Amino acid sequence: MAEDGGDRDHQQQPPAAAAAAASDSAGVEGRSRESVKLFVGQVPKQMSEAELAAMFRSVALVDEVTVIRDRVTRVSRGCCFVICPSREEADKAVTTYHNKRTLPGASSPLQVKYADGELERLEHKLFVGMLPKNVTHAEMTDLFSKYGNIKDLQILRGSQQTSKAGCAFLKYETKEQAVAAIEALNGTHKIEGSSVPLVVKWADTEKERQARKAQKAQFQSSNMLNANAMQQNSVFGGLQMGYVPQYNGFGYQVYYGIKNEVRLGVGP
């Protein structure tokens, strides 16, 4: 819990800065801001937290190990989370064990990776949208370097055949620099050649991207079903259900029940 003086400081800060400060003091899930969570797969179900902690602590500093268990049976699901105090220590664990050691009782080598969202959090990665198609690398660097040291910048340009705007991804050295850029530019700054202000926000994690892609696919599928249903209603709406129009053998059909339209057929 923050002290009263700290609370007053947060109230005087802009919302984004206050959120960043709160995150820095509280950490992620109650842990320090520098700590890193790893996901470990292909763990034998009989292994305990103590055994896994001893194994990982033989190659790196480890704060905590948590076996992921079934909520009902409490049986291990064959994977766990490992929390290391720093990225350097986490990289030691990944380098030593990922795809390099198969534990007794497991069918495949250990899978040791950064947990969902950890890389984005550690790399202070931002998404920048609503960029004019002709924006240059130098323009972006000049603008965003006012708020900190840029580690990486990638510009994705919209197609010349469409009106879709371009976008970019960039990484800062620190979280404070990224927060400063968001506060100063998001929704307020316009780059020359654009009629709308920039969108500057934290880049989505891989999990968020997959969820958005699934939602988009579901939306498109729903629209297609609705369009097909409307098309069928427009074609068959004027006919009695279950009725097949009479075919006369001369290339004409006799229709019944269609208002304001008469078609004559030749035949019996």
TrEMBL record:
<dbReference type="GO" id="GO:1990904">
    <property type="term" value="C:ribonucleoprotein complex"/>
</dbReference>
<feature type="region of interest" description="Disordered">
    <location>
        <begin position="1"/>
        <end position="29"/>
    </location>
</feature>
<feature type="domain" description="RRM">
    <location>
        <begin position="36"/>
        <end position="117"/>
    </location>
</feature>
<dbReference type="GO" id="GO:0009908">
    <property type="term" value="P:flower development"/>
</dbReference>
<dbReference type="Pfam" id="PF00076">
    <property type="entry name" value="RRM_1"/>
</dbReference>
<keyword id="KW-0963">Cytoplasm</keyword>
<feature type="domain" description="RRM">
    <location>
        <begin position="124"/>
        <end position="205"/>
    </location>
</feature>
<protein>
    <submittedName>
        <fullName>RNA-binding protein BRN1</fullName>
    </submittedName>
</protein>
<dbReference type="InterPro" id="IPR000504">
    <property type="entry name" value="RRM_dom"/>
</dbReference>
<keyword id="KW-0694">RNA-binding</keyword>
<dbReference type="GO" id="GO:0005737">
    <property type="term" value="C:cytoplasm"/>
</dbReference>
<dbReference type="InterPro" id="IPR002343">
    <property type="entry name" value="Hud_Sxl_RNA"/>
</dbReference>
<dbReference type="GO" id="GO:0003729">
    <property type="term" value="F:mRNA binding"/>
</dbReference>
<feature type="compositionally biased region" description="Basic and acidic residues">
    <location>
        <begin position="1"/>
        <end position="11"/>
    </location>
</feature>
<keyword id="KW-0287">Flowering</keyword>
<dbReference type="InterPro" id="IPR012677">
    <property type="entry name" value="Nucleotide-bd_a/b_plait_sf"/>
</dbReference>
<feature type="compositionally biased region" description="Low complexity">
    <location>
        <begin position="12"/>
        <end position="22"/>
    </location>
</feature>
<dbReference type="GO" id="GO:0006402">
    <property type="term" value="P:mRNA catabolic process"/>
</dbReference>
<dbReference type="GO" id="GO:2000028">
    <property type="term" value="P:regulation of photoperiodism, flowering"/>
</dbReference>
<dbReference type="InterPro" id="IPR035979">
    <property type="entry name" value="RBD_domain_sf"/>
</dbReference>
<keyword id="KW-0677">Repeat</keyword>
